């Protein structure tokens, strides 16, 4: 029988091995991942050696030739398994063993890695303006202390050092969890950021310290009281150039606003996000997406802790869609006060500068001014607008008309600009009454328009610096145009005659542009003069910043000589391409040029000139496409950049076609479009499908689905873009193009929705509908079949898909009267072309439609157009069938009516 002490020792060692071994190996692996190794590995090997010794002792103590007892045999088997396991673990343990000096070095390296990670997170935090708590800093400090203690404890007992290592492991796990959370939050916030997010704010002049203080005077306005205790909407109104944006900037950043909102929100915290619409700016400065994305960005960068709660999972590369942003904002505003003790005051400037229909803007603002929210209010500014005034007249404070308060401010502003000038003070010393009269006269003549004041003051300061006397200053003021439009005309008339042609070209280009162009684009007009086909013949060659800067430096002076101060060259990068965006001095400049001076600009062009600004813009976009860096197909930003230029070119091409009275296409424009197709095919040469597949498909909406099946084409995109003349040219040259695999061309014409990274002013400026009747007629004339089945959409016909799309839009309230009228005309065209009144629509209720009678052709017609109009369309189909089949009576059609 084996010595009891030996068996007890073996049993204890096995238990210790199992317990300590599992913990130590896990710890060693964890610490090895973080630091390089752990000394507990030596302890594990020591225990394994004890097991071997006890096991060998049992066997040696047995007399020769005698078998082990059953219990002894089981113990030896267990010991053998431990030894075998030790042999299997030894290679792993060897990889975990390091020298003491290596341990110390590795700990230093890990501490450095932690510091580097924190520095990177800190930089990202500063770049995005994220307000984190101090948890990560606290964890870092704790880790550093434990590392120092572990190094000092090198000679301590293993148990004490193990305890310290366990604490270190826990801190490292906490650090990793917090770091991962911070990284997730930062990526989320970065996805909301866009280059133009602060551009409008930065360009609004900061109010002079001595002006706008009246806003907080309770004897003059209700603004301070509203901040402290009011709710709903505080409304600021005024005409163009009256200083609304400057006042809104002043109000939103003033310390008194923060103090008043703090009193209102207590015990919660106040949050005051702002957005400044700018109609002449870039897409994100004038759209719903820009508004919502900016407001959410400002909220979550101040309160990043709510991100996992309101949007736990989101891929970084995904583009924010309007419905997603609306849903996210609703979630944020609906958080219980116990979880998110915050009250919101939104500052939104320039509602009249929104690029879409004002009715759409009202729907978006309804998210913010929900009557159930007692913790949300809005401060808004706008020019007078019929729709907005009517919508909000009962849900706002009495509008504050800015012109009623600015006269004294204007006088103060002029005094601050002139009386700080030494030469003007010299004039005051000899002509005080005349100088005082001059200051009063400026404020009187301004009629509440700050822009006018700043312009005339600029001219007066210019004259004072050249030692002009008071009489000259009076003459400048008296001759200065009394309104902005007259001032703009005055500036244009002052352009030197030899610059007038280029001036006209520049202004005609900027009036038509979809968004501000980079300065380099204007230099391309010189190339166009020498060779109208310059963009077509240009090589695909990326433009470097150094080359662009060299060109731009020359063109800054040329721009000023030809346009005065009416066009401003900004510093920095263009949000889409190249450098130095060129923008109008003020929105009113573009309005003046487009509405009052367009014909005058055209008259400045030489007789017989074939300059067409829209065609020139198409050439510019083509050249810029060829100047892009190689497109990265895995990079959403790279693809978006290309698609922005593509969509801008397609917009200009559509406008050029629409305004050209000739029924035949402009061949120069056809050539540009063809070359764009070839250029983008080169950019996407690594793609298996056509380059148009880089564009995302529209999202499914109920029954309305958009599937390409890998067969999209440039001709299909031209159909979506309503380029009727271009499509006619292509079908004439090859009639077989009407037959396209996958989604039929007629379907693109009837459902022209496409995802674009830039919105087009088709609807907001002219209330145009998306469907072009001429395009539908053209395709039908070339043999398009409304009854063609689309296997990508479960075999539904083109006609059925059109009705489903109309139905979904009508259900969402997106069908204005003008659009419904177009639907009726298109339905007539399709019916007279043989559209099947028995077409299959749907046969299940997976989309939540329980009334199956609706999902028939007749049911959809009635739902979309009403019973009378639907009955007329059905009778039109009956008449057509009767003509083709001997005037037989088709009661089956009428029976469908009541099914």
UniProtKB/TrEMBL annotation:
A Pfam family that the UniProt record links to this protein: NPHP3_N
Gene3D superfamilies: Ankyrin repeat-containing domain (1.25.40.20), P-loop containing nucleotide triphosphate hydrolases (3.40.50.300)
InterPro entries named in the record: Ankyrin_rpt-contain_sf (IPR036770), DUF7791 (IPR056693), NPHP3-like_N (IPR056884), P-loop_NTPase (IPR027417)
Acyltransferase found in the keyword field: no
All copies of domain Nephrocystin 3-like N-terminal, residue ranges: 211-383
DUF7791 domain mapped to chain residues: 495-632
Keyword Repeat in annotation: yes
Record keywords, A-Z: Repeat
Protein's recorded name: NACHT domain-containing protein
């Amino acid at each position: 029988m084996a010595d009891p002490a030996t068996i007890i020792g073996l049993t204890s060692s096995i238990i210790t091995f199992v317990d300590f071994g599992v913990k130590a190996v896990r710890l060693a692996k964890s610490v090895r991942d973080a630091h390089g190794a752990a000394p507990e590995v030596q302890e594990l090997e020591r225990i394994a050696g004890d097991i071997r010794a006890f096991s060998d002792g049992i066997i040696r103590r047995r007399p020769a030739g005698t078998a082990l007892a059953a219990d002894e045999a089981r113990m030896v088997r267990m010991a053998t398994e431990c030894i075998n396991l030790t042999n299997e673990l030894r290679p792993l343990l060897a990889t975990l063993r390091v020298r003491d000096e290596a341990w110390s070095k590795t700990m230093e390296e890990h501490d450095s890695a932690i510091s580097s990670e924190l520095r990177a997170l800190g930089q990202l935090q500063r770049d995005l303006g994220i307000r984190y708590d101090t948890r990560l800093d606290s964890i870092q400090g704790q880790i550093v202390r434990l590392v120092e203690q572990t190094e000092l404890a090198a000679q301590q007992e293993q148990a004490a050092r193990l305890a310290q290592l366990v604490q270190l492991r826990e801190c490292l796990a906490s650090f990793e969890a917090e770091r991962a959370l911070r990284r997730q939050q930062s990526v989320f916030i970065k996805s909301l950021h866009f280059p133009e997010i602060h551009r409008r704010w930065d360009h609004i002049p900061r109010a002079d310290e001595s002006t706008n203080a009246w806003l907080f005077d309770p004897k003059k306005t209700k603004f301070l009281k509203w901040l402290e205790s009011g709710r709903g909407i505080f409304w600021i109104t005024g005409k163009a150039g009256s200083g609304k944006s400057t006042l809104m900037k002043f109000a939103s950043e003033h310390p008194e606003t923060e103090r008043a909102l703090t009193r209102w929100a207590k015990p919660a915290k106040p949050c005051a996000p702002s957005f400044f619409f700018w109609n002449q700016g870039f897409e994100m400065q004038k759209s719903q997406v820009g508004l919502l994305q900016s407001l959410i960005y400002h909220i979550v960068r101040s309160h990043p802790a709510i991100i996992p709660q309101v949007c736990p999972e989101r891929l970084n590369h995904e583009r924010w869609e309007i419905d997603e942003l609306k849903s996210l904002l609703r979630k944020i505003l609906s958080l219980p006060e116990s979880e998110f003790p915050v009250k919101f005051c939104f500052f939104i400037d320039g509602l009249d500068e929104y690029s879409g229909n004002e009715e759409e803007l009202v729907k978006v603002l309804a998210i913010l001014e929900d009557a159930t929210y007692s913790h949300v209010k809005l401060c808004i500014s706008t020019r007078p607008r019929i729709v907005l005034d009517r919508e909000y007249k009962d849900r706002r404070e009495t509008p504050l008309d800015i012109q009623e308060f600015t006269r004294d401010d204007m006088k103060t502003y002029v005094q601050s600009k002139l009386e700080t000038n030494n030469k003007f003070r010299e004039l005051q010393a000899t002509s005080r009454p005349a100088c005082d009269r001059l200051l009063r006269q400026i404020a009187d003549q301004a009629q509440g328009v700050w822009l006018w004041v700043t312009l005339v003051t600029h001219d007066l300061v210019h004259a004072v610096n050249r030692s002009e006397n008071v009489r000259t200053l009076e003459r400048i003021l008296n001759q200065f145009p009394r309104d902005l439009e007259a001032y703009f005309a005055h500036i244009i008339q002052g352009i030197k005659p030899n610059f007038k042609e280029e001036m006209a070209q520049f202004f005609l280009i900027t009036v038509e542009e979809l968004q501000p162009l980079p300065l380099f684009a204007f230099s391309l007009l010189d190339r166009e003069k020498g060779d109208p086909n310059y963009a077509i013949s240009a090589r695909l060659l990326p433009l470097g910043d150094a080359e662009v800067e060299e060109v731009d430096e020359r063109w800054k002076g040329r721009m000023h000589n030809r346009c005065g101060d009416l066009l401003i060259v900004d510093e920095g990068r263009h949000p889409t391409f190249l450098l130095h965006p060129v923008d109008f001095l003020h929105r009113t400049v573009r309005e003046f040029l487009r509405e009052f001076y367009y014909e005058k600009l055209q008259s400045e062009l030489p007789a017989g000139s074939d300059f067409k600004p829209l065609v020139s813009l198409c050439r510019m976009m083509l050249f810029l496409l060829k100047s892009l860096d190689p497109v990265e197909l895995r990079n959403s930003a790279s693809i978006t950049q290309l698609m922005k230029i593509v969509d801008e070119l397609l917009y200009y091409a559509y406008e050029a076609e629409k305004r050209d009275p000739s029924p035949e296409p402009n061949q120069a424009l056809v050539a540009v479009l063809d070359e764009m197709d070839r250029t983008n095919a080169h950019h996407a040469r690594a793609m298996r499908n056509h380059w148009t597949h880089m564009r995302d498909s529209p999202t499914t909406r109920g029954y309305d689905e958009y599937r390409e099946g890998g067969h999209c084409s440039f001709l299909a995109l031209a159909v979506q873009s309503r380029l009727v003349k271009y499509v006619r040219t292509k079908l004439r040259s090859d009639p077989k193009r009407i037959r396209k695999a996958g989604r039929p061309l007629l379907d693109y014409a009837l459902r022209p929705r496409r995802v674009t990274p830039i919105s087009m002013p088709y609807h907001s400026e002219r209330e145009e509908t998306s469907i072009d009747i001429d395009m539908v007629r053209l395709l039908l004339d070339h043999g398009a079949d409304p009854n063609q089945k689309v296997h990508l959409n479960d075999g539904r016909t083109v006609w059925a898909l059109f009705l489903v799309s109309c139905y979904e839009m009508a259900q969402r309230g997106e069908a204005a009267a003008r659009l419904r009228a177009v639907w009726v005309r298109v339905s007539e065209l399709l019916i007279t072309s043989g559209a099947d009144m028995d077409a299959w629509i749907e046969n299940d209720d997976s989309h939540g439609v329980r009334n199956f009678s609706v999902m028939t052709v007749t049911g959809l017609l009635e739902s979309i157009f009403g019973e009378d109009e639907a009955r007329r369309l059905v009778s039109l189909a009956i008449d057509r069938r009767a003509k083709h089949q001997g005037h037989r009576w088709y009661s089956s059609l009428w029976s469908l009516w009541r099914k």
